[in-house]
Amino acid sequence: MRSVDAAGLSIGTGHPPRIMGVLNVSEESPYDPSVYDDPGEAATYVDEELIGEGADIVDVGLESANKRYDVLSTEEELDRLDVAVEAMESTSGDAVFSIETRYAEVAEAAIDRGFDVVNDICGFADPRMPDVCAEYDVAVAKMASPPDLERPGAVDDTDWAERRSQEWFEQSDYVDRVYEALKQNGLTDKTIVDPAFGGWSERKTLRDDRETFRRLREFRALGRPILVSINRKNFLRTIADRSTEDALPVSLAATAMAIERGADVIRTHDVAETSDAAKIADAFDDDPATAAAGDVTVARLDVRTEREARRYLDEADGDLALGPAAVCTVLAIEGLDSSARTLLETEARSADVLMTGDRQTLVGGSYQEISALSARIADSDGLERLSKAIQALPTLRENL
């Protein structure tokens, strides 16, 4: 998993979950407690109820993303940027500031005026957005969306048969399309992925959100930190039959589960309570299993299903896929030179273990198969350190 530096704030593997509090300078936004058009009042709210209660990031929205409202133009968003900047400059607390927008021009103007992060709700539908973020070297949250600035989050409005193929479309499900939407138009080195929870389109169902949440771990295979915005969302409220006002306990339960599934950033209006839930979830979350021998490092990726494993193997973009057995574990290997990697490919083929990786070296198989591979290479010149690292993995020892 890749970590991202957001103006000095580390997000991702090896770092605690980050809390993103919300400030809206959009009068049409539905959540009144977060809406301010006076910069001084907005700054007080940010200092006391966001940063003061534990927010690491303050996400400033210039317009409501609610589909009932007309989309603001670039000029209209820029008109509201003055209030956002003045509010940011008036705060005394220490936090990273994020601008929520769909326009590269607005993002660039906000960065020039002091914002640290971009929150793109249209998933790089503006083709200049990734270039602007890369040029300024800022972190950018990319929400799964069609390539259309008018329809943020409406993943099923994409003509997937045209963008991929009719066969792919017929075999895919909603989570597959969310995953693909995050990949379209590319990812910068500092991209944070957002699976787009919430009622972004009329075609989207509560079941779609629940399935996306259930399979959240799959998005780890993209190698980017994950942002979730699930605070008091309808797909959770209906399970417990709670109104928005009474849905805080539901949100906190889901927050802990999201972190266990791989969420790195939690966007919320309930900062203090969400921060507490995140601390508990993080304290009891298992650290990734890693081991090293010399320059060779092995990490066991957190996969629970074969589908999750296949995501990692597909993302490795390799041309070697071996073995009929179901994958129980996937190891990410670093530190092999080219000759050792070639030798490992040969040994993997003989051991009936999956191996892939033009981008990175991944090995997948059952615990028994991985252990057998380790034994085969124990005396191989160039792979003995890899064997020691594999055998040192605590989860491998526990499952044999």
Structure description:
The chain has 400 residues and is α/β, with parallel strands linked by helices. Helix content is 39%, strand content 17%. The protein has helices spanning 39-50, 74-90, 104-112, 129-136, 160-163, 166-171, 174-183, 206-214, 234-240, 248-261, 271-283, 306-316, 338-350, 367-376, 384-392, 394-398, and strands spanning 4-6, 9-11, 18-24, 57-61, 96-101, 117-120, 139-143, 191-194, 227-228, 265-268, 289-293, 296-300, 329-334, 354-356, 361-365. The strands form three sheets. It has an eight-stranded parallel sheet with strand order 8-7-6-5-4-3-10-9. Strands 11-12-13-15-14 form a five-stranded antiparallel sheet, sandwiched between helices. It starts with a strand and ends with a helix.
Features:
400 residues, alpha/beta, 8-stranded parallel sheet, 5-stranded antiparallel sheet, 16 helices
Distance from N terminus to C terminus (CA atoms, Å) equals 26 Å
- Tally of strands: 15
Strand order of the largest sheet: 8-7-6-5-4-3-10-9
For the residues shown, what is the average pLDDT? 90
How are the secondary structure elements laid out?
Layout: E1 4-6, E2 9-11, E3 18-24, H1 39-50, E4 57-61, H2 74-90, E5 96-101, H3 104-112, E6 117-120, H4 129-136, E7 139-143, H5 160-163, H6 166-171, H7 174-183, E8 191-194, H8 206-214, E9 227-228, H9 234-240, H10 248-261, E10 265-268, H11 271-283, E11 289-293, E12 296-300, H12 306-316, E13 329-334, H13 338-350, E14 354-356, E15 361-365, H14 367-376, H15 384-392, H16 394-398
Parallel strand pairs: 3-4, 3-10, 4-5, 5-6, 6-7, 7-8, 9-10
Antiparallel strand pairs: 1-2, 11-12, 12-13, 13-15, 14-15
Helix pairs in contact: 1-2, 2-3, 3-4, 10-11, 14-15
